[in-house]
Design brief:
The complex is a heterotrimer of chains A (about 375), B (about 375) and C (about 300). In chain A, the strands form two sheets. In chain A, strands 6-7-8-3-9-10-12-11 form an eight-stranded mixed beta sheet, sandwiched between helices. In chain A, helix 5 runs parallel beside helix 7. Chain A is built from 14 helices and twelve strands. Chain A has a domain of about 230 residues: P-loop containing nucleotide triphosphate hydrolases (Rossmann fold), CATH 3.40.50.300. The longest helix of chain A has 18 residues. Chain A is an alpha/beta fold and about 375 residues long. Among the domains of chain B are: about 100 residues, P-loop containing nucleotide triphosphate hydrolases (Rossmann fold); about 90 residues, no CATH class. In chain B, helix 9 links the parallel strand 8 and strand 9. In chain B, helix 6 packs across helix 8. The longest helix of chain B is centred in the middle third of the chain and has 18 residues. The termini of chain B are far apart. Chain C is mainly alpha-helical. Chain C contains eleven helices and two strands, in the order ββααααααααααα. A two-stranded antiparallel sheet of chain C has the order 1-2. Classes of the chains: A alpha/beta (about 375), B alpha/beta (about 375), C mainly alpha (about 300). Chains A and B meet through helix 7, helix 8 and helix 9 of A and helix 8, helix 9, helix 10, helix 11 and helix 12 of B.
Amino acid sequence: MSTTDTTDEQPRELLAATNVKKHFPLDEGLFDRLFGDSQVVRAVDGVDLTVHAGETVGIVGESGSGKSTLGRTVSRLYEPTDGSIMLDGRHIETYSGRELRSIRRRVQYVFQDPLSALNPRKTVGESVARPLSVHDIASGEAKWDRVAELFDEVGLARSHLDAYPHELSGGQRQRVGLCRALVTEPDLVVFDEPVSALDVTLQAQILNLINRLQQEFELSYLLISHDLSVVRQVCDRVAVMYAGEIVERGTVADIFENPKHPYTRALLDAIPRVEAGERGERKSLGGEPPSATNPPDGCRFHPRCPEFIDGSCSGRKPELQSVDGSAGHEAACHWLDRSEAKRATHTPPSPSERDVIQESTGD
Amino acid sequence: MSLLDIEDLSITFPVEGGPDVPAVEGIDLSVEAGEIHGLVGESGSGKSVTARSVMRLLDDAEVGAKRFDYRGEDLYDKSEAEMRQVRGDEIGMVFQDSLSALNPVMTVGEQIAEVVRHHGDVEESTGLLSELRRKYITGTSTSAPSWRRAVSLLETVGIPDPETVATSYPHQLSGGQRQRVMIASALGGDPSLIVADEPTTALDVTVEAGILGELRRLCDELDVAILLITHDLGVVAETCDSVTVMYSGSVMERGRTDQLFENPVHPYTKGLLRSIPEGASTGGELTTIPGSAPEPTDRPDGCPFRDRCPAAFDACSEPLPEHVVDDGHVSHCHLYTEGDDPGEVTWDAPAATNGSLDGTTERTHTEVTDG
Amino acid sequence: MSTDYGDADTFFGVRLDRFERLYEAVAGDYKATFGLVTVTLFVLAAIFAPELAPYDPMAQEYAIMQAPSLSSAHPLGTDSFGRDLLSRMMYGARVSLGVSLGAVTIGAVVGVSLGVVAGYFGGWVDDALMRFVDVLWAFPWLLVAIMLVAIFGQGVWNVIAAIAFAYIDDFARLARGEVLSIREEEFVLAAKNIGLGDLGIMTEEVLPNAVAPLIVQFTVLIARAILAESTLSFLGIGVKPTTPTWGALLGQGRSLIGQAWWISIVPGVAIVITVLGINLFGDALRDAFDVRGEGGSP
């Protein structure tokens, strides 16, 4: 999908987030607050993100990488700690009250588990119709006609309008979730792991539906997933997150065919293969994601990095830099130019040795 | 003789004031000693219920089988006391959600040591008083054989620094580590079979690979058979020696992993393999199986898959047949009669695809009109 | 086109099919029917006491003091002053039921509001409100009752206020605990996402999901309120001492249990039946709200 740079006109920037941070206070005890001794979880720590009109941007990462928090922060479900968020050229990071309500209509969020995202005591019809009355879009019969049309659109029967969430199957519930997101005719839809709670045959159905709805309703998507094959399937551009930061981003082709960051490569190596009967040698990444309260110095990936080189990895924080001069493809690693051969023969020091290696041994 | 040999197993949940729920209807399942057998299916296929029936953990269900043999002895003929010995001594269990399966107020070392004392070969008192003393006052002595065994088990499952981890509480460990602790605990009684119910579903892919590798290694090195319940064909392809595919309470196809992946015969297996996003090219439509699985109380006669099957025909309402495709490769599909492959099964593309398989270019920037 | 899907009629904001569910829950369950019927009968007896009572509850017949029951003239017997016990029970129900229902309802409204707001907003709002509730809890309610009587004199409303005061913290704590877990549910975030305000989220999303334990609490406290009212009467700071209430009747009969057991047994049984009835009906009410109750997952 190398279509991003073919048109002369740059597509409109629908969402442009700059240096977004979201920190959660770790302890809300009275004494911690009184004595200012509170630590913070740096769930998202300075991320830039752009979504152009009509495109699908994917965010991938392990659990705890901050990808869901990023999605919720840019759609203003969470208050950003720092940074700017622009929707259609307007700063929305300081919006509240009525202003915020107006962007709620334009930015919608689809949750991973539709069962927990639907109020168990409302019929799914009520849940889908509610945004219409909140935003004074339609009421009475017009409202219900509109909801029923959407139900037809996503392949739900009208008789499901009166069902409660627990009476539907997982796939049907996720279709209800899509209806609720689409009912206000938004510009941007954020999908948080839209299919990971579903069976594989249903995953395919829902992914196809998501693609079709994008064309029909002219939507832009931000898709959060831990599953690289899902991202590859539906996204135009991808950002890879690790420990609250973006470590690499580019088009789907960039990321999947020319991954530059060791973490991206590790993620790709970890995808299970279904080639006939082959017991694929799947490489696992050792270690655990770092603590979000006290992330490692230097590159946050250095304690686990299979390509750890020297003190610059643990001493200096790498910035995102362009790969091979291409504007869209960026990676945050000190060692982007290292050749394939050198990487293959490199034996990294053990995790305990890494902290001892000093910056001076580096460049 | 198979290690575990189940024939014609049916599991029904009686429902008060409603129709009974037949979770599993007449399936066969066998696990050979020292192999990893995958039991794969979607949610509601009955795979987890089947796994639990092996441990006789289904109190509120009616379990019936022509044969339910473990090492030639029928598990359902045993008394509850004998069964308690089998669980742990002979069959260990690993659950999906390690955080709720482990006791939050006991260190993991203590929990494994307890299993070792009850089921392993260490000489230590397991009387009520000494267990209570350990639990509430002294804890297991770090020089006790059971504790040393617990630490060595943690090492066996690939946990670095097992002494420290043994003194940790479950919430202090990561999901991957907890799952390894669960495996260590299942190994506490030196079992011959481990039933692992979706052991990696809650984990990240990067961690999943490590856990599956560990299971594979344990199977090879300790000669433990593993019944691996999963919904993920990728996990099966990577880990299992043989596999049984379940759909809505029935077995659709079973065979060696290579047979099944190279030559899937049943339309359901074929559809399942093609639904995996990786199998398709980037972008475009995925092949899907339309519809969803029927409710257990609302299955069609005969083949439960026939309402979704593109190749369904009259015979499909008859009871499921059994056709041997190859040595060990069995399909339960009417289409397939020996030596006569039904050929390619094609699904109609979903109704509203607009026929643009290569619609990715369009899709990317259809809406860029201003500038 | 007329739409018969999803567009449920509402009655004061409550969907009518909730009432249908309630009707089904009650009609299909003899325990709930029993509960509803007894409570309704008691309430009707209280409301129409002046019309239904065979005697004036204050009228004394010295000839038949402590007459045993089973006489056709006085089916429940008479008390130590020769007053008809049935009539006194009917008039007593007015105070006992009125006070207990009123006090618990007020306690529930105030307590649940405090608890929901505290739990939903958290932070300093939570701290402030819950410390306030702690103060209420630490304040002996009998002292409050005495204060009220000292200031305003004896009366039904003071009794209701004093008892309601005592139950605010029970409801507040329970509601807050429920809300703390419910507000973490994703459907609350989803409601925020569609643009619903805080008040809307609290009333539409959070409260309906917290209602089951609150109903149970309500029915339990009704029983305690009937007894609390009798405690106040016993101490002489309840309603006027001569007014018959179930609690007061129970208290008077206590000292005569050897000679005239029915004087204390009759109000005792009435309290038990009322509490039981409200409990059974409360269960049905809870089931009617719990849409997930039927057909649980296998």
